[in-house]
Each structure stands twice: as C-alpha cells, then as structure tokens.
Design goal:
heterodimer; A: about 110 residues; 10 strands; about 0% helix; B: about 120 residues; mainly beta; seven-stranded mixed beta sheet; four-stranded antiparallel beta sheet; 11 strands; globular
C-alpha cells in the first residue's frame, strides 16, 4: 500500500492530452515538491519531472507537472506511442522523514 | 555523464545477508549523496537508504534495523547490506544518485539498471 495514491491505469489515443494524478497528504505533496518517473518494461525508472514543475534536459516539453493542495498531476500532451510506460510520482514525507512513491500508473496508448 | 551499475548475488538464502555494490562512473561518493531503492510487483518502489559525503545516512524505518549503507575507500562505489532476509525482500534493487536539500531527498537521478535479488532456499 503506497502512501501516494495513483490510478493504476490510464489510456489515450495519439495526439491526445492525458493527465495522470497522484494524491497524497499534508505531510508530503501538500508541503513538499513532487517528482515524476517514467519506466519502460525491463528498464530502470527515469526522472521525468523534478521540483513539481521542472523538466530535466532531454525531456520533451510535452510533459508537464503541477500540483494543487495535496494532489499532483503529470500531463502529457500530443500523446505518442512511445509514451506508453509506467509513471510514478514521488515526494518527501515530513512525518516519515523519507521519500515516498506512488503505486504507479500504467499508460496505454490506444 | 553519470552511470551506475549494481552488482551482487542474484540468489540469497533466507536469514542470510544480502550484499550489493553500486559502481559509479562520472561522479564520486565525495560530491553527491547516493541511495538504494527496490521494486517489487506487490509493493512498488520503496526507498531503502541513502548516504552522503558528510557521512549522513538515513534509511526507511521499516528496514532500519537490518540495513547498512556504506561507501568505499576508492570513492567510486557504495554498498548495501540487508541482514536476515526473507522471501519478502525479493525485489529488483536499484542504486541512484540523490538530489538533496534541507535534509530532504528531492529526487533520484540517474538510476542504475537494477539487479534482481531472489531470496529463496
């Protein structure tokens, strides 16, 4: 049972905009930055968004992060087949004094 | 470019100690913090521990009594020891560089490719 809650699956068609959500609480998302990781089958997670809104170099601007209250979102615009992957949110938790992860969302491009 | 590579036994017997090493290229244990994270189908991604150049370490509370994280004298690798393992410790273990501020872990980047460790007799 992950501390951060994500919908297990999401889907979209090529070109569409898809949003993946991550729900937490006041001790994590509500007061801390959020980051997002992308993971393809058999590969390690890759940092996609850090400090809630920032993209590392090399990440397309089709990917964007945001948060409101105790929830965070990852938006993917202009969806492409190569975006099909698992996406994980993460944040620091002040109560646990530890980084925590969401359970992941499997994105399918139809 | 920083690259990480995990190494260690793929099979560990119950009650024994799991030992893994993360080899670092393109960076040093003297200039960044480093971490171990594991992934299982049932529990997803789980932070295990990190170590910083200052000697600061931290580990998740559920594993704290069994975890040792350390750096080597050559500054190009760090290690994990997890004692008294059970089948529930079966997972893919990743090492990663930590971005840290104000005593908090901000993000992990990059990650090693991961190594599967199975706990079984």
């Amino acid at each position: 049972q992950s501390v951060l809650t994500q919908t297990p699956s999401a889907s979209g068609t090529p070109g569409q905009r898809v949003t993946i959500s991550c729900s937490g609480g006041s001790s994590n998302i509500g007061s801390q930055n959020v980051c997002w990781y992308q993971q393809f089958p058999g590969s390690a997670p890759r940092l996609l968004i850090y400090a809630t809104y920032q993209r590392p170099s090399g990440v397309p601007d089709r990917f964007s992060g945001s948060k409101s209250g105790t929830s965070a979102s990852l938006a993917i615009s202009g969806l492409r087949s190569e975006d099909e992957a698992d996406y994980y949110c993460s944040s620091w938790d002040d109560s646990l004094e530890s980084p925590i992860f969401g359970g992941g969302t499997k994105l399918t491009v139809l | 470019q920083v690259q990480l590579q995990e190494s260690g036994p793929g099979l560990v017997k119950p009650s024994e100690t799991l030992s893994l090493t993360c080899s670092i290229s393109g960076a040093s244990t003297k200039t960044y913090c480093w971490s171990w994270i594991r992934q299982t189908p049932g529990k997803g991604l789980e932070f295990i521990a990190f170590i910083c150049p200052s000697g600061d370490t931290n580990s998740t509370s559920s594993l704290k009594s069994r975890v040792t994280i350390s750096t080597g004298t050559s500054n190009d690798h760090f290690s994990l020891r997890l004692s008294s393992v059970t089948p529930s410790d079966t997972a893919v273990y990743y090492c990663a560089r930590v971005s840290r501020s104000y005593d908090k872990v901000d993000w992990f980047d990059p990650w090693g490719q991961g190594t599967l460790v199975t706990v079984s007799s």
